[in-house]
Amino acid sequence: MNEAKATKFLGRIGDIYVGAALTLMIDVGFRAGLWDAAAEGPATSEQLAKRAGLDERYVREWLGAVTTGEIMEFDSPSGTFSLPEEHAVSLTGDGASNRSVNAGLLTYLGKHVDSVVNAFREGGGVPYSQFRPEFTSLMDQRFRREYNEKLFDGYIRVVPGLEERLMEGISVCDIGCGTGHNMNLMAAAYPASTLTGYDIAADAIELARAEATEMGLSNVSFEVQDATALPDDISFDMMTTFDAIHDQANPQGSLNEIGRTLKPDGVYLMIDIKASSDLKNNIGNPLAPYLYTVSTMHCMTVSLAANGAGLGTVWGRELALEMLAKAGLTDVEILDSSNPTNSIYVCRRPVAVTSRASR
Ligand SMILES: C[S@@+](CC[C@H](N)C(=O)[O-])C[C@H]1O[C@@H](n2cnc3c(N)ncnc32)[C@H](O)[C@@H]1O
After folding, report:
1. CB 323 within 8 A of CB 269
2. Is the pTM of this model over 0.90?
3. pLDDT recorded at residue 223
4. Domains of the chain, start order
5. Atom in ligand 1 nearest the alpha carbon of residue 242
């Protein structure tokens, strides 16, 4: 055995656990409002506790973790703690740059370790129902910020001419829409277009409808609908899935339905994970361990729980292109998304070529 390698790895294990421990503290800070309170300026533990309306003893212990964890800084003479503005950018506010929201997904997945380990032993998986209703609101918190800032510039306007068509009035469908904030924003921006959101989750659809009503929208509707059996009498000019193919029980069935219901000159934007289908190409991708973990703990297991394909989060571009082709979508351009974990697949049907002889 190489002793130096063993010692180096022991250090790495330590780093991994410290990162996991700080993930808990980042989530606590987000939920308790400590990050936003800390960003207001330097404070002692008493002042910060008062600012956030919290118990000082807990705040002091939390400050111990996040200060030694090099997230906050401590000025010993004055006894004050401060959150550098360079760190506050990633931990505070309502914008998409606030990454403290993401910690909640990891701490929540931690609650399902027993059930997932049981599935390792017995097969099957942990059903979607076991992750609700918290999963619905975690997804909403995460995606809402992204849509508020980036839906138009980061997704719609990357496809030349698409916004003009939306302004003129087209039919749009988002599959696996969750709480539907993206559809509601588009409905408000493009009143001549008609938008539909489908999801199997009744709690998410209820929230999507409530927001549409609150926003006074009459050109958007949301239905509880399985993506693998869309109604016969519908077709759309634009279809979208935002991180909603890889965790389905029957993703090929769902893509086939998109292929069937997309109009001949329509466009399908599949926003999905940026990775390779081949593990060896993902080695060295710093986000890959996160993606495979979320897959094991949620995306793959919910699919396997329904006797599904269990594609997993890291199904990758090679397999995605194969499956899109099976659904008749062979004209595919892959663009980078503003979200580093995602790609935007801009999919169309192949242009029909008319031979000279048949003209
Ligand atoms: C990772 S979440 C993404 C949510 C959503 N796109 C957003 O932006 O917040 C995946 C969504 O796909 C939905 N889903 C899974 N299987 C489905 C199916 N067979 N038909 C319709 N929706 C499905 C889930 O209920 C969940 O809301």
Report:
1. no
2. yes
3. 98
4. 3-91 (1.10.10.10), 106-358 (3.40.50.150)
5. 6
